[in-house]
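In the current project phase, the collection of sequences with tokenised folds has grown. One resulting record follows, to show the layout:
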Amino acid sequence: MTRPHAGELLRTVLSNCSARLLAMLGLTLATVLVARTGGPAAVGEYALLRMLPGLIGVLCVLGLPGALAYFLAEHRRDLPRLWPTLMAIGFAGGFVGTALWLAASPLIAKVFFPHESPWLIAAAGGTVATQLMLTVGKTALQGLEDRRGGDVVIAAEELAFLPCFVLPLVVGVHGLAAIIIGLALADVVVAIDAWRRVSRRLGWRRFGLAGHGQGWWGRPERSLGREVASYGLRGQVGGLITLLNLRLDVAILGAIAGPAILGGYAVASKYAELLRLPGTALTWVFYPRLAKLDENQAGTVARRMIRPALLGIIVAAIPVALLASPILRLLYGASFAPAVTPARVLVAGMVLAGASGVASAYLYGRGTPGLNSVVLGIGLVITVVLDVTLIPSHGALGAAFASTAAYLSTDALLIVLLLRLSSSAPRHRTAVAVSEGSS
């Protein structure tokens, strides 16, 4: 198979970055509205409800979102009973995740939402399934290489919350209830569109009407399910660790310092994560493409992208850091001024994110997600140790320093791993397979 044209790849990455920037704009506008109507405490609760249900959901689907692009590559997507197997995993995970949230809701309310009704926190469990439905639909589009559809869903995922949050406010529902309703409605609306695009990409016959295990519905294949779960769980570890590295500081800070301080830190974190968008876009675009190439071609393409991805983020970090103060004060008001310094610290932690995004795409595309997970696990250890050490005495700034150390460490290790493996891919093929099988 021939390698993708460089110009076409660049356009695809830029398109995905644009979609993610629109999503970030939607998130920013929503956060501003939440901040203006409820203050820093409401922003903290919003951040927790965006993170915790999704975390439980991805834990319960055996790594399905991370496995989809691999199993939906052109030479794998017509495996017998593939779709019934994938759907069975998704529905079972959504049911289990919702049940776990309901069972744990008294503890969740006590730790993270001490001033809210436990029944309201229990109701937020519905977003476990809605977030999962959206996430699986979005990653299915990635695997099917519907780049336009995937970009639309990425942007809509955040933009949809704003009108869905305004709707309960208009009818007189405020506070945390309005946030929960807005999140659930936005998930459902965008998920329906995502799955509509998936079915059109496959052909409308796939909307549950095809026989012989080729439609969405039918009897799942147990052995295929084990194969999907084996790949997915190895990647799931890395995906979960990435999520924890990005959000564990939020959870620990929220539990220790409370929603008000967390609200300011959540704003700082989202601002700094602007610099992670290109790396995420590179992973999104390159993962399914590299899965179609042979090992030498994949290594060549990935190595070629390292330098421009690295230099681009370093250059972009300078104005992002300098503009932190005026932008955060303008958007969120004077009460969010303490978020400026943590934002600048977090910006420093993002400078390697572009190159590490290429590295993660290479490892996933070559069928070795466990190696990615091992490296990210090192970063998680750094995050936990530094969070519990620094947050009690330094609050939000301690959380920022902990996350920055974890980001830089894991990103640097991923880049080194890419350079070493791709420079001697044939010689290491057997060793990588053995290592991956034991991870």
About this structure: DSSP finds 17 helices and no strands in the chain. Residues 209-213, 426-439 have pLDDT under 50 and may be disordered.
